[in-house]
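To the wet lab folks,

You asked to see what we're planning to order before we commit. Fair enough. Below is the target structure as tokens, and below that is the sequence we designed to fit it. If anything looks off to you, flag it before the synthesis order goes out.
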């Protein structure tokens, strides 16, 4: 199904009955990545699984977005579906959006589940600082010495050399969007979250280290932390049963077992 929000067609699936559970996927992925959760939770809940703008079957924005833009789009999406007493499950980038929504503590947000969530920006390491300085210097030289069509070709080569894997995989508007969202540090938001929160993290996550889980757990007052041993950035793929059991137990605490 599709719905238009702020001029963008948003693709989503809905299945099941009961309290609403909204699934928000990570950067570079789409709703298919959360299908294992969707397929299980629809047995007891009204599950909404969507492609965020710029991913999957949803429209690519005409201009770059930041975290606040994504949050507003999702809140409008929720309002369009008239969802009440809902839970948000956000994986990685999807967790960023969940954190922003929870900070505002809307009345209808019943609980929040963060799975290897982005949102904490660490201080740059020396190697990273050197790489960024080198890129800026070379970019400046290219802009001064090369003109015309070749200029963009050289700049693109520099971006591919110095950019992250996510950066290299995106182009145009979505590349600009990535730069905006990865530079947003939401650490200060965490202490303002009053919503009951479950934090699930892969012990061996190389994308977002497990220490971020402990920071979030310490700052979100009403939170519970579950570490999935021998799991990486996608713990629901590495140990689906453990993740589902943790989610199921948490949701039963929130909504009760008589679903």
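Sequence we intend to order:
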């Amino acid at each position: 199904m599709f719905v238009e929000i702020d001029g963008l067609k948003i693709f989503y699936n809905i299945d099941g009955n009961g309290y609403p559970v909204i699934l928000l996927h990570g950067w570079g992925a789409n709703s298919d990545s959360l299908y294992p959760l969707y397929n299980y939770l629809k047995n007891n809940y009204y599950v909404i699984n969507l492609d965020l703008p710029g991913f999957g079957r949803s429209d690519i924005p005409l201009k770059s977005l930041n975290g606040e833009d994504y949050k507003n789009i999702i809140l409008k999406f929720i309002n369009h579906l008239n969802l009440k007493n809902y839970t948000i499950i956000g994986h990685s980038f999807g967790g960023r959006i969940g954190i922003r929504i929870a900070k505002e503590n809307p009345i209808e947000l019943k609980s929040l589940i963060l799975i290897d969530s982005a949102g904490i920006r660490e201080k740059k390491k020396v190697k990273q600082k050197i790489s960024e300085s080198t890129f800026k210097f070379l970019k400046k030289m290219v802009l001064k010495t090369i003109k015309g069509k070749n200029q963009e070709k050289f700049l693109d080569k520099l971006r591919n050399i110095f950019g992250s894997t996510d950066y290299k995989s995106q182009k145009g508007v979505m590349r600009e969007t990535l730069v905006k969202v990865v530079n947003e540090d939401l650490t200060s938001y965490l202490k303002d979250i009053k919503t009951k929160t479950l934090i699930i993290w892969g012990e061996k996550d190389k994308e977002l280290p497990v220490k971020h889980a402990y920071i979030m757990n310490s700052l979100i007052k009403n939170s519970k932390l579950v570490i999935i041993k021998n799991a990486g950035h996608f713990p629901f793929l590495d140990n689906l049963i453990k993740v589902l059991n943790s989610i199921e137990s948490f949701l039963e605490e929130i909504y009760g077992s008589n679903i």
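Structural context that might help your review: The two ends are 26 Å apart (CA to CA). The chain has two domains: 2-121+185-255, 126-180.

Thanks,
Computational group
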